[in-house]
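Q: What does the assembled structure look like for these inputs?
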Amino acid sequence: MRRITVFGATGSVGESTLDLLARRDDVAVVALTGGRQVARLAELARAHRAELAVTAHEECYRPLKEALAGTGIAVAAGPGAVVEAGYRPADWVMSAIVGAAGLAPGFAALSQGCIVALANKESLVTAGPLLLAEARAHGATLLPVDSEHSAVFQALVGEDIAAVETVTLTASGGGLRDWPLERLAQATVADAGAHPNWAMGQRITIDSASMFNKAMEVIEAREFFGLDPDQIRVLIHPQSLVHALVGFRDGAMMAHLGSPDMRHPIGYALNWPDRGALPVARLDLAAAGRLDFAAPDLRRYPALRLAGEVMRIGGAAGAVFNAAKEIALDHFIEGQIGFLDMAGVVEDTLADYMSRGSLGNAPKSLQEVLAIDAEARRRAAEVIRARGRAA
Ligand code: NDP
Ligand code: MG
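A:
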């Protein structure tokens, strides 16, 4: 039996992971964690006979406890309890909490030397070098789950990373791809929250429309594969069938194609190093007919330009970038700032740090990353207030 824990079980990636686990009979579910969707968490814990169900919110303890009464499933609550779940012995752990909240649980899981399937890209953006060092120190294996990174990883099987010239991540362009530039400022949460190809959580869907998601993925690719920033490219590809391309020094390019279904990269990480059968739709390229590609317009997608800045600065820039982005996204979702203001807030927050000369030093521990994250959130909120006063 493989012992498996799923962080963020009630989310989009978590549910897809559990869908795959339900089809197997060689799996014992150790812990499932969730946030506010207590009833769903209880349902999943029952269905998968989990040993432990954890909600990240203290106030959700009682309803979760009641929902699981008489099942023998242990219950815990609070951010500390989520991290604790990562220390429960497991062979394979899915890290699919959204946001920087996924960082500490991922570190906990790595410390037991297991396989960690990483959907939480924020971990690599905020603490890439530390995360990889933690994995190495404990003999743990980190596998990419983000579809583009899984695609690159698969294209690199049997290849020498030194022979790689370029890595190209594709982007659908999100829900606002065909909007005229002048209208983007008016985009609402509903407009930005509708994705043409992928069914994902609300936050990442909005990040797809602003390309903050792709910006995070560029940084994620740099960290995960140890690439130079100028080796990483982004291509708009509206069909979302080619997930990434790897260019080699002999001029060859390996493309990874598949239907846009997260159960593919999740299943690849689950079956790795084997290639097991997966219940995903097969591509019919004749029916698809065409694959389109276009260079992204940086005026439309300032987030991509900011990702380049972040990689150039290094140090604490990734953690500040992510924290400011999360705060800006919160405010957009709450209707307090406009769609294009999100990039403005992130840019101003980075500039604020630059003017104080406090970005260059790389954090040396998880605690330092969390402290930078907390401080950057406060400063981003201050930037939003200042922009509001100036408007
Ligand atoms: P969702 O919003 O669908 O789910 C997030 C999960 O995290 C839920 O289980 C949620 O609980 C839980 N959660 C939310 N806040 C906290 C918190 N503060 N502490 C602990 N748990 C919390 O997100 P997705 O599944 O879309 O994305 C998860 C991660 O995977 C993100 O990092 C995303 O960037 C990445 N990813 C997602 C892809 C996708 O297709 N969805 C593709 C590639 C990467 P609850 O809902 O119960 O409140
Ligand atoms: Mg992706």
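The two ends are 59 Å apart (CA to CA).
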